[in-house]
């Protein structure tokens, strides 16, 4: 059981794991052991609420394919278990990120005082620059 939030959990069988060889330098150990973990999650076939599915598919993230699958590859560690755990944490953060709704912005007007202070500051700056000008060249 994978806990996304207080109300949302996923079954372990909804995640597909593949273990592949890591790329990069590492020598003999790297060439013979499949330590990189690749997590594959089908959004459309999952038990997530519809709002989560819609937001995940609409999210602009390189880990989400056009066919509606999340693919997270982790090869940071030399340990398969550590890479699996890191990929799972990234997956939980990704899915949980679409659960938060942004607060609606309320349009406001600047106060009279703030407008007056802004204009006064602009006048002061202009006066300072006017003092720097060489008036003899006119």
UniProtKB/TrEMBL annotation:
<dbReference type="Pfam" id="PF00472">
    <property type="entry name" value="RF-1"/>
</dbReference>
<feature type="region of interest" description="Disordered">
    <location>
        <begin position="104"/>
        <end position="138"/>
    </location>
</feature>
<comment type="similarity">
    <text>Belongs to the prokaryotic/mitochondrial release factor family.</text>
</comment>
<dbReference type="GO" id="GO:0072344">
    <property type="term" value="P:rescue of stalled ribosome"/>
</dbReference>
<dbReference type="GO" id="GO:0004045">
    <property type="term" value="F:peptidyl-tRNA hydrolase activity"/>
</dbReference>
<keyword id="KW-0378">Hydrolase</keyword>
<dbReference type="GO" id="GO:0043022">
    <property type="term" value="F:ribosome binding"/>
</dbReference>
<feature type="domain" description="Prokaryotic-type class I peptide chain release factors">
    <location>
        <begin position="7"/>
        <end position="132"/>
    </location>
</feature>
<dbReference type="InterPro" id="IPR000352">
    <property type="entry name" value="Pep_chain_release_fac_I"/>
</dbReference>
<protein>
    <submittedName>
        <fullName>Aminoacyl-tRNA hydrolase</fullName>
    </submittedName>
</protein>
<dbReference type="InterPro" id="IPR045853">
    <property type="entry name" value="Pep_chain_release_fac_I_sf"/>
</dbReference>
<dbReference type="GO" id="GO:0003747">
    <property type="term" value="F:translation release factor activity"/>
</dbReference>
